[in-house]
Amino acid sequence: MGYKGFRPTVARWIRMQRNATHQDNGQGKTYHNIITPRRLQSWFLKPLQNLPRSATKVLTQVLGAIPELQRGFTLVHQFHTMVRHRAGRALPAWLKAVHYSGILELMRFADSLNKDYSAVYAGLTEPWSQGPVEGINNRLKLIKRMMYGRAKFDLLRKRVIHAQ
User: Fold this and answer.
1) pTM for this one?
2) What is the pLDDT of residues 75-100, one digit of tens each?
């Protein structure tokens, strides 16, 4: 059926580590004392070389304690690498690995990618981007929001031309 309770299991493990650290040294704060699921999520999304040494140590302990988390960490980093380097040719193998992983959350994500596979594949392989077009649309919508209910197309046209 897949791995259920992803976040609560991690949170429970973190609480146990906090208690063990607090009993061991009884002094200042360490990453064990301040680690939260959100912090763990941010560590998941960063390359290991960009993390502080103490965070890397804690993350290594967490990944060693929960095998499903280790598999998820590996798959997330593979996907990030695919996106950063536009390596769309690795997408079919990654989708297959996700389905064999048994991690329900990643399987749902992979299913949503499969629904529009051709667009996702093109986005990971094609050299062009729609970023500039989206930026223009965003600017136009911002101007329209600022003019809410004031005038029709002629004034909007003047404001857009003036804003350039």
Assistant:
1) 0.61
2) 999 999 999 899 999 999 999 999 99
pLDDT tens digits for 126-154? 988 888 899 989 988 888 888 887 767 88
Q: What is the total count of domains within the chain? A: 2
Task: Note whether 41 and 79 are same-domain residues.
Answer: yes
Question: Is there a domain that residue 1 lies in?
Answer: no
How far is Cα 42 from Cα 31, in angstroms, rounded to an integer? 14
Clarify whether residues 39 and 89 are in a common domain: yes
Nearest to 7 by CA among 30, 39, 29, 34: 39
DSSP symbol at 90: G
Domain that holds residue 57: 6-125
Q: Checking phi first, is residue 102 left (phi over 0); if not, alpha (psi -120 to 50) or beta?
A: left
Contact residues for 91 (Cβ-Cβ < 8 A; gap 6+): 82, 113, 120, 121, 124
- Helices 117-125 and 91-101: crossing angle in degrees, nearest 10, is 130
Token pair 């200042």 is found at: 28
Average pLDDT, the chain: 83
Q: Cα–Cα distance between 131 and 76 in angstroms, integer?
A: 24
Decide: 45 and 75 in contact? Cβ < 8 Å. Answer: no
Supply φ then ψ for residue 94, to 5 degrees.
-65, -45
